[in-house]
Amino acid sequence: MGRHPENTIEGFKHAVNLGVGIESDVQLTKDNILVCFHDKSFKLEGKWYDISNLTLEELRNLNFLDKRIIPTLREVLETFNDINPNLRFSFDIRSEKVGVKLIDLILEHNLSRRVEITDRRLLVLKNLRTYQGHAKLVHTVPEKIKHFDDKKLDFDYLKNLNITTLNIVSWRANPQNLKCIIDNDFKCYVWGVNRKIRMKRIFSFRYQDKSVSAIYTDYPDIALMIRTQILEDTLKYYET
After folding, report:
1. Which among 34, 23, 162 is positioned nearest to 102, based on CA atoms?
2. What is the pLDDT of residues 129-152, one digit of tens each?
3. Per-residue pLDDT tens for 20-53?
4. Bridging pattern class, strands 41-44 and 47-50
């Protein structure tokens, strides 16, 4: 969203053209269509709207200030599915019902290997695992949890759900928390990485020959530039 309106085809195209993956928030309209939109409710011209109370047609008839057209999830998958066979998708879900319909759509498009579903609620993740044993589920750690080694994260429970990745907010991505995740044999994603200084810190992190596996950012072009520079500096160091 640093370059285009978030959760739009234009924004996704920008990401894909850079060679990075697509992340979106997904929720259901009143007529049970999955759409890519962040907020449950929004204010437009002094009036409040709720996505779940609008049909897709009603939603698209609204005049957003940024001129966006709300894409359906089906449109996103069908637009970008065949562009790059290695393109990854990550979807943050509004509800368990959204997750179930998302899994059905993923299976329909044979994208189970390339799509990850993220959520904070362990019960929702548990029920989605019961619904589909092979869906790629990622636990987004609630921001209120400060220290990951104080028994507030049940790593064994997550492993029993076949969840192997934790998604943490950028200001909790300190060396202690990252090491704890790695020590418990989990991969780590970091979201909200929009400042250059945080990009540099996260890309530079190494522990037991491991690093952060993915980041979510509004500025993938800047992140790629910084990552390339860090890699080049590292190579120069070892060459000398």
Report:
1. 34
2. 999 999 999 999 999 999 998 678
3. 999 999 999 999 999 999 999 999 999 999 999 9
4. antiparallel
Contacts of 209 (CB under 8 A, 6+ apart): none
Q: DSSP assignment of 94-107, as one string?
A: SSHHHHHHHHHHHH
Q: What is the pLDDT of residue 216?
A: 97
Distances (CA, A) of 223 to 87, 130, 178: 17, 36, 19
Give the side-chain half-sphere CA count within 13 A for 118.
20
d(CA 111, CA 106): 5
Number of neighbours of residue 236 by Cβ within 10 angstroms: 9
Cα distance between residue 169 and residue 140, in whole Å:
8
**What six digits make up the tokens of 222?**
């800047």
Which three-class secondary structure state does DSSP give residue 208?
coil
C-alpha 145: how far from its chain's center?
Answer: 19
Which tokens is 7 given? 């959760």
Confidence class for position 85, pLDDT limits 50, 70, 90? confident
